[in-house]
Amino acid sequence: MKLEDLAKTHVVTVPPEELIDKAIAIMGVHEIHHLPVVSNGSIVGMLSDKDILISVGGLSSAHRRLPGRRVAGPEKVADIMSKPVHTLSASDSVHLAARLMIRERIHAIPLLLGGTLVGIVTVIDLLDGILSSTELTTTKHPLFEKPIRSFFADQLITAGPSTPVDELVDMMVHRHIRHLPIAVERELLGIISDRDVRAALGRAAVRDQQAQASGKLFLGSWLAMEIMHTDVKTIDSDASFGQVVDELMRNRIHCLPVLEAGKLVAIITDTDILRLIGDWDMILNE
User: Fold this and answer.
1) Which one, of 257, 219, 226, 217, lies nearest residue 163 by Cα?
2) HEC string of 59-126?
3) CA 202, CA 28: separation in Å to the nearest integer?
4) CA-to-CA distance for 267 and 256, rounded, in angstroms?
5) 35 and 14 in contact (C-beta within 8 Å)?
């Protein structure tokens, strides 16, 4: 299967001179997390919600006002976009896209034809297209019949319910993870995603600015227990890899904590599945 079979061909873009506020609004209206940055018909950068978090905390300029009508932080897309841009051709394979996403830790790839932007493919596009079409849960390949415990990571990373948000950010950034289980002695209490952290940082910054404007001091700090999701779907370690994939796709979720005798032992994410897709041709030839 080629990327052109999965990609979105109606691509929303922004010019580099666009205001970050406008880019935030565009992402919200279209419910997207990546914007190719195009100038004179050529792609010059990529803007993701992660770029917006890192640069301005996800806040619009209205929430970053300083005395004298100044704005804290950058104002234009060109100041925060990621470059150079990793691109592929629409005729490239999904395996190549998966490998590129894993290697570069990106979640969207623009597709070019003769230097012109013709589409964009995301992690979700790959999972939706490839995994659903190959019916993993019914395949006879032994890989998908293996218990999920065969794919556990070497180390399970968790945080406690009283962990401050700034510590959660450090853990996620340094460990390159997007989902963090909140647990006490391997008892799962909830889960936090990178988007939960971004939202918390934005709210904290707004409260801080509001306090300063009123001549007060903001002493609050978001804790893991205040932003975690407690309604978490889990799966048993005896489940097969195919069952895990089916559960992820059917519930439209990005991760599944794995339990053994009621205790947390691992977490399986869509990135783990993506890594498998990257090796798909090798696996099928085993």
Assistant:
1) 226
2) CCHHHCEECCCEECCCCEHHHCCECCCCCEECCCEHHHHHHHHHHHCCCEEEEEECCEEEEEEEHHHH
3) 15
4) 6
5) yes
Residues 255 and 263: beta-carbon distance below 8 Å: no
Q: What share of the chain is helix, strand, coil (3-state, %, to 5)?
A: 45, 25, 30
**Angle at which helices 194-213 and 165-175 cross, to 10°:** 140
Helix extents (H) in 186-238 = 194-213, 224-227
User: Is the sign of the CA dihedral 62, 67, 72, 74 positive or negative?
Assistant: positive
Instruction: Please give the residue that has the higher pLDDT: either 67 or 37.
Output: 37
Please write the tens of the pLDDT for every residue from 130-145: 666 654 444 455 667 7
Write out the two tokens for 75. 């104002």
Residue 102 pLDDT > 70: yes
For residue 7, report the phi and psi dihedrals to the nearest 5 degrees.
Answer: -70, 155
Of the candidates 88, 86, 87, 59, the one whose C-alpha atom is nearest the C-alpha of residue 74 is 59
Quick: pLDDT tens for 175-216.
Answer: 878 899 999 999 999 999 887 887 677 666 656 765 676 676
pTM (2 d.p.)? 0.69
Pick the CATH number of 3-133 from 3.20.20.70, 1.10.260.40, 3.10.580.10, 3.40.1400.10: 3.10.580.10
HSE-CB of 17 using CA atoms within 13 angstroms: 2
Q: What architecture is the 135-284 domain classified under in CATH?
A: Roll (3.10)
Each domain of the chain, given as residue ranges in start order, spans 3-133, 135-284
Domains 3-133 and 135-284 share a fold: yes
Structure tokens at 143: 């890989």
Instruction: Find the helix packing angle between 194-213 and 49-56, rounded to 10°.
Output: 30
